[in-house]
Design goal:
The complex is a heterotrimer of chains A (about 170), B (about 400) and C (about 200).
Chain A: H1 4-22, H2 26-46, H3 50-75, H4 90-110, H5 126-134, H6 138-159
Helix pairs in contact in A: 1-2, 2-3
Chain B: H1 2-5, H2 7-22, H3 28-62, H4 78-88, H5 99-115, H6 134-142, H7 144-155, H8 159-190, H9 195-200, H10 217-233, H11 245-248, H12 258-283, H13 299-320, H14 326-354, H15 358-382
Helix pairs in contact in B: 2-3, 3-12, 3-13, 4-12, 5-7, 5-12, 7-8, 8-10, 8-14, 10-12, 10-14, 12-13, 14-15
Chain C: H1 4-22, E1 47-51, H2 56-59, H3 67-71, E2 77-81, E3 86-87, E4 93-94, E5 97-103, H4 112-116, E6 122-124, E7 140-141, H5 143-146, E8 147-149, H6 150-156, H7 158-190
Parallel strand pairs in C: 1-8
Antiparallel strand pairs in C: 1-6, 2-5, 3-4, 5-7
Classes of the chains: A mainly alpha (about 170), B mainly alpha (about 400), C alpha+beta (about 200).
The structure holds iron/sulfur cluster (2 copies).
The site of one iron/sulfur cluster (SF4) has 12 residues of chain C, from α3.
Chain lengths: ~170, ~400, ~200
Amino acid sequence: MVTGPFLILAALILVGAVAAVRMRNLVHCVLAVAVVFVGLAAAYLQLGAQFVGWAQMLIYVGAVAILLVFAVLLTRGGEVPERALFSPGWHWGVTIGAAVFALLAWAIRQSPAAHPPPAAPVQVTVEQIGTALMTHDVLALEVTGLLLTAALIGAVIIAMNDGGPQ
Amino acid sequence: MSGVDQLFVQLKHWALARCAGILPEAWQPLVSLLLSIIPLLVIFPTLFAAMVWMERKGLGRIQNRYGPNRVGPFGLLQPAADGIKALIKEDIVPRAADRVVHWLAPVLLVTTAFTVYAVLPFGRNMVVVDLEAGLLFFFAVGTVAELVVFMAGWSSRNKYALLGAMRAVAQMISYEIPLVLSTVTVVMIAGTLSLPQIVLAQSPASGWWPAWFVFTPWGAAGFVLFLIAANAEANRSPFDLPEGESEIIAGYFIEYSGFKFALFFLGEYLSLFAVSALGVTLFLGGWHAPYVVGEWVPSWVWFFLKLLAVLALFIWTRGTLPRLRQDQLMNFAWKFMIPMTLINVVIAALWHWIGSGPVRWLVCSALVIGAYSLLGRGLMRAGRWMPRTYRFAE
Amino acid sequence: MLGEGIIKGMVETARNFLGSYVREDRLTTVQYPEEREPQIENARQFPFLVYDGEDWETGLRCVACQICEKECPPQCIYIVKSKDKKPDYKGQMQFYPAIFDIDLSVCMSCQICVEVCPFEAIKMDTDYEWSTPDRFAALLVHKDQLARPNAYYQQLHPTDAAASDAVLAQERARAQAKARAAAELKTKAAAPPPTS
Ligand code: SF4
Ligand code: SF4
């Protein structure tokens, strides 16, 4: 599984992720996050999941990154903070994070699902995804749709002009 | 006539066979790709030059002027003169600018603009890669332009640039939705996301009515909605608020000069061509002739003729319509475009389920016209002049 | 209905587009270096200095009073007053400008210098073709470049020139009458009083 392109992508994603945390300028962080998104999309494509890859690109780079940009610009304007980047107890955070990661990795390695019998690689077409969404997973799809609609209506109500000029 | 039709395809095969003798086997796919890409890298910048000339001439005539007529016969060398001028200008980067991002933005813009051409079929068997999710690829890569615009505006450290970038991003996000939704109808009817397959679904039938999708009620509505959304995505008049020369002086690329400015210009036009080509592919039958009789004309000639026609339409609207105001722009997107595209999706589904016959024509046309006039009336009522209220700026 | 106006506008622009190919009179453009639009009489570009008679150096009307230098809003006039004097059009001895420079790159064609000049000495030219590759020295024009005969002014702005000529003639007549009166007074004073 560990091929050359995968290594390059993994390096890109990791560098992007570290940059997203370590950069001083918030806008740079957002751009680094966008790089991570693109890297992930490329990783999906590498695994042969065309639809997921392009959807990841469309949704995350096209919408989520832009949302982050808006959030940064509409709040603090992306100015560079003067004070130290990390809170004093940052090494505790790192330790706990590493511990959680180790635990999870161990659990995953132990689980029988991690060692599936080698299956023939399947070529998933967009059509299959569509059919699956409309038949087997239709309930999940509907629930998600309902949730998103509710969120949308909520957003509209919040943004609505509440009665005349103030 | 298939000789001329397949001329470029055969040329490529011939060149590939030539290379096969010299290069190792493993290089074959790479060479094949290069042979497909290089013509695109030549043709579309040339089309860019031609388009700039056409646009300046056309806008001139629309305003009862001559347009460029000094450089070369009929001003034909004007694009070359413009290019030379851009090349020899000083490349100025503001001192406060974020140099890396500032440099990266035009480069990324042109790169992504070229990338989307990979999935567009320019003629029979003439597509660089036939992706199964080609349409999705087109939009996925196209969205990078939004981020690029933001990068350009933000890294310039200029209030006009930032304003322009914010406007551009808000506008692109708003119009991205109707743009994608208007193409969904085509995907529903053709049953595929692959662009060559969509073109094949519009092969000329033997009947008297062309099989292009634009010649159906939902297709006509979809095409118009697509064109409007594409116009907004390309930041062209009447949706040129992000650039608004008279208010924010070219918006997000105000701080770009010389060759970088030219790159922005190029990138913008390349994405305009790409989105027009997509419109041709989705609604105007791609490289197909309307009737079987027309098939003797090479497919790529059909494609480029249609592309030029769509581009002429863009120039025409640019010469006609004044710039919108920001609230009009948003009202139009959210109160008209999006509902209309959603209704259009339903109409396309009805078209599919009713089956053939005059009934579906009647039902679908009535629905399109009814939805249009209702939504249009709502929008017109909302657009009345009234004292403006400012909620947040007291 | 929504979109009606757009269609109307598109038809209008299409008519312009096609019409401009068939009807020459639609095209309002003038092909500039080859043809020029005639300038209206009140056109004004940059100032020039008027002189009377044949020789510009002696005939310059300007008396270096420096009013225009003080009034010019962007301060683009530079005058150095002469040490000696020379007679003006009335025959009165006056200073003259030893240096009179106008920086045309700064001049904003406001005509204030013309309005304030009490001697009808500075007027507005209609020449606008000052394009030059040298934006400093070539646009700093000196008095020899600025000097133009009165005939030139009469030809450029006939109405204004007539008015200004009339003013000058009036002044000259008044000056002459004064001189005559003074001379008469002098001769009267010199002559012995008439005895009765
Ligand atoms: S026209 Fe105005 S700006 Fe020009 S020299 Fe005269 S006073 Fe100065
Ligand atoms: S041009 Fe007129 S105002 Fe200016 S210094 Fe000469 S006489 Fe005086």
